[in-house]
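Now for one record.
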Amino acid sequence: MPMKNFGNLLLACMAALLGACAGESAGKCDAVVRIDADSVVNRGYIGNGVQWDPYALDYGQGRIEISDADWAKLYARLDFMRPAFIRVMTNTTSVVRDGRLDRMRGFEHLSHILDYCQSHGVTVMFGDWGGSLMDARAGTVNRTLLDHAAAYVAWLVGEKGYDCIRYYNLVNEPNGFWSAADGDFDLWAKAVSYFRGRLDAEGLAGKVELVGPDAAIWGPEEAWWVSRSRDELGDRIGLYDIHTYPSKCTVNSGEYTRILEAYRREVPAGKKIVMGEIGFKFVEPADSLLFVYDPMYGTDMADALFQTIHAGYSGCIAWMLDDAMHFKEAPDKLKIWGFWNIFGDEIFGAGEERVRPWYYAWSLLTRYMPAGTAVYRTDTTGEPFVKAAVSGKDGKYMIALVNVSDSPKTVKLKSNVL
């Protein structure tokens, strides 16, 4: 579907829904959404966006570069989305050669991503996946590599001028057995404390905040990672975050909200929490999601986002932009999670380069929730599979509805102000 027509279709659908509940039909609505514009549940929203990492570029047939035409295609698609928040993860080991920091190594590729974010006012969560930053068996951190990581981000922010980098994510999902920290909170906290000191020494105090705990969660049981981060790391953590890959049932039933609230409650006053990664897992274990080809994934992701913002989270990053960023068992076996595969025409099949349906749903919820948005209270009664979210900034409002059932529903909107 052409991007220019999608917004008109959405508005037409909303008009049809609202019209169906007008006049004599008002008592027959499947759901009533009440908007309380006097009750703000979340102020100063950071924004929604997507994971956009440097690309693998070698898929088993030698290195391939992203063409100027494909970069232009990527930028155009991002322009429609208007992301306010992007997560960019790298490995510091990739810019260290013979024990020395080689800042320019791979920069010609990374700069395409950071240039876009800087020129479009996108807040960036930069970071290191964690490889070699610590030795979980020995219980030690690699201070030399952490020094290099701090020097590298200081160079990006200072000399290269990428002050769009506002947050740093040290070690992906440290609570997991797959992580460099191997679930060892004390080891991860030791690295965080040391790294915060190195960032300050590099002149980044007040410029780049650390994100944590970045825990991957499926239920409320891991909330202690947030509470221990609060109690033991204090102001070293500037922004809290978690990752979730829930099931469709968990989200559509509303159970997802209860899980998210368990983590939000542990965040100290004055600090925010965001969703650092979000995606669905319909089959366990799985590191690809073929439902990205199905329009249903777009409505499910909208449902998850609505619950995330109502639970008090201040941003949400979808996993992930493009299949071509990461591979699994072999270079030609990609992680299928993205909005597309930019190397579809060149390697993986022309159809893979086309935009997938969930891109449109996520884009609308990204472009119409800009940085600084306020989220308003909504209460929905009636049909449980109808969900709503309302936000606003500078006198402009977004009213978003999603129906995750398998049949059409009629909806009536009520508001005390709007």
Summary: Residues 71 and 112 are 8 Å apart (CA to CA).
